[in-house]
Structures are given as structure tokens and as C-alpha cells.
Fold this protein.
Amino acid sequence: MSFYVSSSKSPSNLFVYNFETKEVKQLTNTMTKEIEPTDLVAGEVVRYKSFDAWRFQRCYINPKEFLPARKFLHFCGFMVAPVDKRV
């Protein structure tokens, strides 16, 4: 079985799982040399409901050396259609 793994700290990489040996093998390494992995930060998933029952999901990411007094945000995410208005 093959699958991709990614996060806010790592771009997508392709892996393969062998059911017989129960081993996972990484096939790609997409991190560029120009980016230091230690400079990347983990994002926090934030979910909320709007006034019209649509649900939103955002990835909340603070800069590595975030100072709350500076008060700036960066949001990336997508809108999810309502599946249940009783959210």
C-alpha cells in the first residue's frame, strides 16, 4: 500500500507499507535544501461554525519566534459544507 504523509512542518512525502513484513519505507524526500526543518512550525487546527451553520476549518500558524504583542496571524484552510446543522 502506498500513501502520502505531510504536515505544516513537512511537505508531502510518498511512503509504501509492506503488509508481509509490516515495514514502512519512505520513497521521497521533498524538503528542499534551502529550508531548514527546524525553521518550520506546527500548525494548530481551529474549527468553528458560522452564523449560517457552515463549518470552517483553518490551520492556525504562528511564526517560529512569535511575540503575542505583535498580533499578526496567517490563516490557510478550506471551507467545509454543512453536513449537520446541529454542529
Q: What stands out?
A: The first strand starts at residue 2 and ends at 7. Residues 41-87 form one domain. Residues 78-87 have pLDDT under 50 and may be disordered.
